[in-house]
Design the sequence.
Protein backbone atom coordinates (compact mmCIF):
# COMPACT_ATOMS: atom_id res chain seq x y z
CA UNK A 1 0.00 0.00 0.00
CA UNK A 2 1.37 3.40 -0.99
CA UNK A 3 0.91 6.69 0.83
CA UNK A 4 0.48 10.17 -0.60
CA UNK A 5 -0.07 13.56 0.95
CA UNK A 6 -3.05 15.72 0.10
CA UNK A 7 -0.74 18.06 -1.83
CA UNK A 8 0.77 15.22 -3.86
CA UNK A 9 -2.69 14.02 -4.81
CA UNK A 10 -3.71 17.52 -5.88
CA UNK A 11 -0.60 17.93 -8.03
CA UNK A 12 -0.53 14.42 -9.54
CA UNK A 13 -4.18 13.38 -9.55
CA UNK A 14 -4.11 11.85 -13.05
CA UNK A 15 -1.04 9.74 -12.27
CA UNK A 16 -2.43 8.58 -8.93
CA UNK A 17 -5.79 7.77 -10.49
CA UNK A 18 -4.05 5.48 -13.00
CA UNK A 19 -2.32 3.68 -10.12
CA UNK A 20 -5.64 3.23 -8.34
CA UNK A 21 -7.28 1.86 -11.50
CA UNK A 22 -4.39 -0.60 -11.77
CA UNK A 23 -5.33 -1.99 -8.34
CA UNK A 24 -3.08 0.05 -6.09
CA UNK A 25 -4.46 1.20 -2.74
CA UNK A 26 -3.39 4.69 -1.63
CA UNK A 27 -3.45 5.98 1.94
CA UNK A 28 -3.91 9.75 2.03
CA UNK A 29 -2.03 11.60 4.75
CA UNK A 30 -2.37 15.13 6.04
CA UNK A 31 0.40 16.47 8.26
CA UNK A 32 1.76 12.95 8.64
CA UNK A 33 -1.49 11.36 9.83
CA UNK A 34 -3.62 9.06 7.66
CA UNK A 35 -7.00 10.61 6.84
CA UNK A 36 -8.37 8.45 4.01
CA UNK A 37 -7.79 5.38 1.87
CA UNK A 38 -8.48 5.40 -1.86
CA UNK A 39 -9.15 2.10 -3.61
CA UNK A 40 -10.61 1.08 -6.94
CA UNK A 41 -14.30 0.27 -6.95
CA UNK A 42 -14.00 -2.53 -9.45
CA UNK A 43 -16.44 -3.34 -12.22
CA UNK A 44 -19.69 -1.38 -12.02
CA UNK A 45 -21.84 -4.49 -12.09
CA UNK A 46 -20.36 -5.62 -8.75
CA UNK A 47 -21.02 -2.38 -6.84
CA UNK A 48 -23.88 -2.70 -4.38
CA UNK A 49 -25.44 0.75 -4.26
CA UNK A 50 -27.74 1.52 -1.32
CA UNK A 51 -31.38 2.29 -2.05
CA UNK A 52 -31.34 6.00 -1.18
CA UNK A 53 -34.97 6.50 -2.17
CA UNK A 54 -36.28 3.95 0.35
CA UNK A 55 -34.08 5.49 3.08
CA UNK A 56 -35.35 9.03 2.45
CA UNK A 57 -37.31 10.71 5.21
CA UNK A 58 -40.67 12.28 4.36
CA UNK A 59 -40.62 15.89 5.52
CA UNK A 60 -43.72 17.55 6.88
CA UNK A 61 -44.63 21.16 7.50
CA UNK A 62 -43.74 24.37 5.72
CA UNK A 63 -40.73 24.61 3.44
CA UNK A 64 -37.82 26.47 5.00
CA UNK A 65 -38.10 29.19 2.36
CA UNK A 66 -41.63 30.03 3.54
CA UNK A 67 -40.55 30.10 7.18
CA UNK A 68 -37.73 32.53 6.36
CA UNK A 69 -40.05 34.77 4.32
CA UNK A 70 -42.64 34.77 7.11
CA UNK A 71 -40.04 35.67 9.73
CA UNK A 72 -38.78 38.60 7.62
CA UNK A 73 -42.14 40.14 6.75
CA UNK A 74 -42.02 42.50 9.74
CA UNK A 75 -38.74 43.99 8.47
CA UNK A 76 -40.28 45.35 5.27
Sequence:
Amino acid sequence: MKTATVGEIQKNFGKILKQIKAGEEITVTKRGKPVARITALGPKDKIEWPDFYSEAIKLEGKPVSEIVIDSRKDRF
User: Anything to note?
Assistant: The chain is about 35% helix and 20% strand. The mean pLDDT is 87. The chain has one domain: 2-75.
